[in-house]
Amino acid sequence: MPRKALSMLSFLSQKPGGPARMAAHDAISRSGAGELVVIDVREGAEVAASGKASGALHVPLAVLRMKCDPASPECLAELSVETPVALYCASGGRSQMAAQMLAGLGYLEVYNIGGLGDWQAAGGAITR
């Protein structure tokens, strides 16, 4: 499916309930193929205790706006509003808030994976 069509489907799926949920196995597959950036929004102590999804960026929710806003000089080079992004936390609450924030910043395709446990249960590797 062409990117424009995917973006439109994503946009439609994000209304009115906010960013869509993505199954962890889909996130694992798409991130492995380089089609998706995965972001862990948990605090540093949580990542230190349990590790993070292999290949995920660690951007705590408290600094997400600064690190992900395309207008910010602190915006991470790995991010683009046109690149699909999927977020997770411990259980899915913070990642839903983060996904809404990114959608508000203009990211075209934003998903909530849920929690790290969802990633792990779907066979995703963990990096410690």
From TrEMBL:
Superkingdom in the source lineage: Bacteria
Residue ranges crossing the lipid bilayer per the database entry: none
InterPro entries: Rhodanese-like_dom, Rhodanese-like_dom_sf
Residues covered by the Rhodanese domain: 32-128
Name of the protein: Rhodanese-like domain-containing protein
Species whose genome carries this gene: Albidovulum litorale
